[in-house]
Each structure stands twice: as C-alpha cells, then as structure tokens.
Amino acid sequence: MRNIETDILLVGGGIMSATLGVLLHQLDPTLNITMVEQLPDVALESSDALNNAGTGHAGYCELNYTPQANDGSIAIERALEINAAFEVSLQFWANLVEQKILPTPSHFINKTPHLSLVWGEKNVAFLKHRFELLKQHPLFSDMQYSEDHAQLSRWMPLIMANREPKEKLAATFVAHGADVDFGALTRQLVGYLKTQANFTLLSNTQVKKLKKIKNEWHVGLLNKASKHAKTINAKFVFLGAGGGALPLLQLANVAESEGYGGFPVSGQWLICQNPAVIQQHTVKVYGKAAVGAPPMSVPHLDTRKINGKSALLFGPFAGFTTKFLKQGSALDLAKSLKVNNLKAMLGVGRHHMDLTKYLVKEANQTHEQRMDALREFLPQANSADWKLANAGQRVQIIKKCEKKWGKLEFGTEIVATQDGSLAALLGASPGASVSVQAMIHVIEQCFGTQLKHQVWNEKLKSLIPSYGQSLIVDSDLLRKVRKHTLSTLQLTQ
Fold first, then answer.
1. Domains of the chain (ranges, CATH numbers)
2. pTM for this one?
C-alpha cells in the first residue's frame, strides 16, 4: 500500500494547529494540509472552553506578568510583550471576520472588562506602582485605577456587595478586555478548513511513529476505532498537541528535543449554579497568586460565554497529576523520563519541592476550603450555589540548567529542527491568546524561504497589518490597529 502524501501535517486539533492551518492556507491555498486528532473531534482538550481560563491574555489583569523584585521594583516588559502579541491575534481574527471565514464575533469573543483586585496595604502599594508604570505606555493608556469603594462598586458590584467600608482595596480596570471561547474559535477555524478541497481531518487517530527519511517525515498512524494503520509522508510536521507535544517530540528523536522535560499541573473550577448570581457579575477579576503557587493558579472570578451561554467560574485550583493530557495516561510522566532529560527532571524535583507540596495540598482541599478562597472575592458566596469541575491539563517546560541541573519555565516555547521540517509548541500560558504570534514564529523558522517571496510577505501583512513592525515602539500604528480590531470584533460596544 502506498503511503499518503501531504505537504503539511498538523498533529493535534486545538487552537494552535487550527491557527497554523488557516495561516498556511491563506499564504498558499495550493498546500495539501492534513490534521490528525486522537479524540473524536477537535478542541476537546486544552482548547475546550472549560479547560482554559477563556481570558484574552493581554497583561491587563494578570499580575504574574509584572513580577516584583526584592527591592520593590516592578518589571513590565513581559506584560508589554504579551499585550502586543494579543493585538496580533486580534488583527488576524478581525481579518477573518471581514473575509467571512469567522462568523459574528460574539460567537467566539466578547467584550469583558479586565480587573486586577488586591487587598492589604502592601498589595495596594504594589498595584498602584504597577498601574503608574503601565499607564505611561500607549499599550496600557486606557487602564484606570481606584481605591474608592464607590468606584469599585460600579466596576464589580457583586464583589463589593456588603463589604466592610474601611477594608483596604484597590483595583485596575480596562474596559476593552476580552473573553474568548477558544473551543468555539477552533471549531470555526477547522470548519473553514474542511470546506477546502486540499484539507483532510483524521479524528480518532494516534501518531505511533515519527521518522525522518531523506526529505520527508514518515508518520505512522493508527485509527483507534477501526485499528487500521497507515503511514503519511509529510514535508512538514507541526506538533501542536498541548501536553502531548513533548512525548511526540521525543518520539521524533531529533537533537533539538534533548534535555526537555515536562511538569504536569491539573486544574479545577468552582462553577456557579445560581442564575441570579451569574447575571450580577459581568467582568473578569484577577487576584494575586499565593506564595509558591504556579502562575496558572492565579485566582480569578470570571464571567464567561461558553457555547453562547453566560457562566460564572472561580479558580483555577491547581492539582497534582502525572497525566500530560486530561484524557491521557497516569504513566505519561514516567514515560517522558529519558537519559537526556533525567538530570534536568531531578534538578527541578529537588529545587521545586515546595511547588509539589503546594499542588498536593491544593488537590486535597475540601469544598468548604475552596469556598473560603472564593469568599475572599465574594464574601457572601453560598456553598450550595457552587460545584467543582475539572479544568484542563498543562505541562510546564523543564529545561537543562548548569547551576540547578534543570529549570522550570511557565511560558510557551517553539522547538524547531534546524532544517525547518518539524516544529513543536511546548508550555502553557499565555498559550491560546498568543496563538497567532506563536504560529507566525513557526512560519518564520520553518518557511523562511517562502517568506522571502513577495507574495507570502505581502499576504501576511494584509492578514496582520502590524507584521514586521513593533506595536510596543510604534504608538501611531498601535492606535490605528487597535481602533480597527476593537471595532471589527465588537469589543467597543
């Protein structure tokens, strides 16, 4: 039996693969693109609405993007980078809406003000200083700050109801924040690709083998339902399988994968069951992470649009697991241990024992203990109104480190082979929010020759008007781009 030939093989049916697929199809409609997903449909793992925060991460409310040093100074560079990267996503989605590739924006993105909320003298001083630094930059020029209870009540009435008037609180507010249903967005992007003659989706299909032969990747596939095996020859392979990307990268056995390990973290939400409470909260309110907590566990009380319906979630509560995917195996962590990453894994285990203890403690909390955390945001919260639900899995990156053997990183990272024939996306937050910028990086690393051609370059600039320029540096370009995207995506209404 002859092997199936394809130009592009996308492994994983989440937001990353879907974004890369649409980008490449827009740049060259003649490319044959195949997507492989081991579950029955796309967007059932990390991209599913309940498996992520749904926040359009822009640094407006996430305090972990502006760390404070021991001397009291606050670094804002990470927040600027993430904000600019999210603007790239907004530009791409706006273009697809204008092309009618994406439907009415409210089907996947909704205007939802972003707030940071802190209490106590020390935290209030931190937030005020953070605001003063960010406010000076055009990216954050619309941010507001207040310690006034009356103003805070206008921004977040449910949280401020029945609070002690003398309680020391402060918040920042950005009106044009976004709530994104990345599951709906992924399904819409893949739905568009499925209308194209040269796109194929293979669901219920696992990758069992990845081997480079001459100038092609020979990828062994197994259909989980029929048990039928086949091989695809692909000129380029993208591993966008969330927590499953690391094992696949190891399976490819490329030099670039050496030394990488993964630290899995699970998550849970408290979900409100009372419609009367849900309708009183229409914003995203982020707090400050507890000491020793991973960034993904920063507590927040969020209004969400999930499959078109309003919801109210609090969390996430982190947990300890050995699975790399929500529907993965308890042996995932053990199987990821290799000779080339064992030292790095042991180093992280030795130097981050406090994190492991924190995760185990979080996983063993009672319902009332979780409610106590919620009541810091919502003092009048009724335990009967809330139920616990599992969120998604995240695999944080572990890399070699000479000093400590291994280091744990909480961002996203693209690993690409020197010849550009294979790329993988590792890591978690800000993940989906910067999917477009991340996939542009993949294209730049792996399709550099094509990008030198005028057709690709001009097409990319039409899709993303700021491409090749810095929104951090060019304030005029930022104002022009932001005005257009916010209007097109209906985030100003």
1. 4-438 (3.50.50.60)
2. 0.94
